[in-house]
Write a structure and sequence with these properties.
With 363 residues, the chain is of the alpha+beta class. Helix 5 packs across helix 6, helix 5 packs across helix 7 and helix 6 crosses helix 7. The chain is globular. It has a 5-stranded mixed sheet with strand order 1-2-3-4-5, with helices on both faces. Strands 6-10-9-7-8 form a 5-stranded mixed sheet.
C-alpha cells in the first residue's frame, strides 16, 4: 500500500527518481523481475490483514520487514493460529510456517528466526519492546516547546474537532493529503509559539512514528534475513537460534543468542492468561491495564464474556454502532457488570488476528 517518497531513495537500490509516487511493491517487483529474469516476484498492494490463512499457507517461509510492532504481532499471531497440534500437544510440522523477521533502527538492527509452536515467538519477549513515546497532554495543549508538540496537537486535538476530511475519518499516515493538512496546521501553531522546525518530513515521522533509516544497516539486516531464508529452504545449515543483533553506532558489533519460550506467553502458550483486577475497578481500568501491562500491550481491546450463561459484549471500540451501545459500560465497576473471580474474557485487538482468552483474578 505504501508509495515511494523522495526520502526513500537514499537507503535502497530498487527505486529511482521517476518512481516517486508509485507503489513500492510494484516498483520493487518490476525491478527484480527485470534484473533477474529467472525470478518471479508478485506484488500485492494490500494490508497484511486483508489476507486470510489460505494465502499465508501458500508460502514455505514468511519474511517480515514491517515498520511497526503491531504489524509484527499480527503476523506472529496469524502464523501461530495456523499450527495444528496432535492429542499430545505436539505441533504438526506440515502446518508450521517459519518466520524470519528483520528490523532496523538507525545504526542498530536485529533478525529473529521463529518456528511457530516450537521456538520462542515474537511475543515471548514482548516486555522488552520499548513503550511508545507519548507527550503530556497539558504540554501539547498549553505549553508546546518542540515542533513535535505542535504536530501532536493537530493530530490529537484539532483533527477530531475540525474533521477536515469528513465525519469519522481518522488520520491516515499513508495519505499525503492528511499529512499536508496536519503539517500546515502545525506550522501555524508553531509560529504562534515561536517554534521552528515543523516540516512535512518531520510531520510524517511523528504521525507514523518513523525512525530514520541507514542504508548500510538495512543492507546488513537484509543480507542476514536472506541467509536465514536460504538455510530454511535448503536445510544445508542450522538456522539462527534465534536472535541476531547488529550495532554499528561506534564501530561494528554483532552477537546472537537464544530466546527461550515464555510459558506464560499470551500468543503461544496455549492457555488462558491471568490478569489481576479488583471488583470495584471499572471496565475502563481493566482496558487500561490491558494496554499498559508489559505482557499484553494491547492497543484498542474489545471485550466479550459470559454472564449468567449468556454471552455479553462489554465493549467493542472498532465498530461504531457497538462502541456507542457499550460505551456506558466503561464507567461501571466489574462487580456491577456481574464479574466473578475467575471470569473468562474473550479479547480482540489489532495486535492479533485471533481472539485471546484471559481470566480475571480478584485478590
Amino acid at each position: 500500500m505504501d508509495t515511494i517518497d523522495l526520502s526513500n531513495l537514499n537507503r535502497q537500490f530498487l527505486f529511482r527518481h521517476n518512481d516517486i509516487g508509485k507503489s513500492k511493491a510494484e516498483c520493487a517487483a518490476n525491478f527484480i523481475n527485470t534484473r533477474i529474469p529467472s525470478c518471479t516476484v508478485t506484488p500485492y498492494c494490500k494490508r497484511i490483514e486483508d489476507f486470510d490463512e489460505d494465502f499465508y499457507r501458500g508460502f514455505s517461509v514468511i519474511v517480515c520487514g514491517l515498520d511497526s510492532i503491531v504489524a509484527r504481532r499480527w503476523m506472529n499471531g496469524m502464523l501461530l493460529s495456523m499450527v495444528a497440534y496432535d492429542d499430545e500437544g505436539n505441533p504438526d510440522p506440515t502446518t508450521v510456517k517459519p518466520l524470519i523477521d528483520g528490523g532496523t533502527e538507525g545504526f542498530k538492527g536485529n533478525v529473529r528466526s521463529v518456528v511457530p509452536g516450537i521456538t520462542a515467538c515474537l511475543e515471548c519477549s514482548i516486555d522488552l519492546y520499548p513503550p511508545a513515546v507519548n507527550f503530556p497532554m497539558c504540554t501539547i495543549a498549553h505549553t508546546p516547546r518542540l515542533p513535535e508538540h505542535c504536530i501532536e496537537y493537530v493530530k490529537v486535538l484539532l483533527w477530531p474537532k475540525e474533521e477536515p476530511f469528513g465525519a469519522g475519518i481518522g488520520v491516515d499516515g499513508d495519505d499525503p493529503k492528511h499529512i499536508s493538512w496536519i503539517c500546515g496546521k502545525a506550522e501555524d501553531r508553531a509560529k504562534e509559539f515561536g517554534i521552528e522546525g515543523v516540516t512535512y518530513r518531520l510531520t510524517l515521522g511523528v504521525i507514523k512514528n518513523i525512525i530514520p533509516a541507514v542504508a548500510s544497516t538495512n543492507a546488513v539486516i537484509a543480507a542476514a534475513c536472506a541467509t536465514e531464508v536460504f538455510k530454511v529452504a535448503s536445510s544445508m545449515y542450522a538456522p539462527l537460534d534465534n536472535y541476531f543483533l547488529f550495532n554499528d553506532v561506534d564501530g561494528v558489533y554483532s552477537s546472537s543468542f537464544s530466546y527461550e519460550r515464555n510459558p506464560e506467553c499470551l500468543a503461544c502458550s496455549q492457555k488462558p492468561q491471568l490478569i489481576t483486577a479488583k471488583p470495584l475497578d471499572t471496565l475502563q481500568d481493566l482496558i487500561d491495564a490491558l494496554k499498559e501491562h508489559p505482557l499484553f500491550q494491547m492497543r484498542s481491546p474489545g471485550i466479550t464474556t459470559k454472564i449468567n450463561g449468556k454471552s455479553k459484549t462489554l465493549y467493542m471500540p472498532n465498530v461504531p454502532m457497538l462502541e456507542a451501545q457499550t460505551r456506558e459500560n466503561l464507567e461501571r465497576s466489574l462487580a456491577d457488570l456481574g464479574f466473578l473471580d475467575g471470569q473468562e474474557l474473550v479479547v480482540v485487538d489489532v495486535t492479533s488476528p485471533t481472539a485471546r482468552v484471559l481470566t480475571v483474578k480478584f485478590p
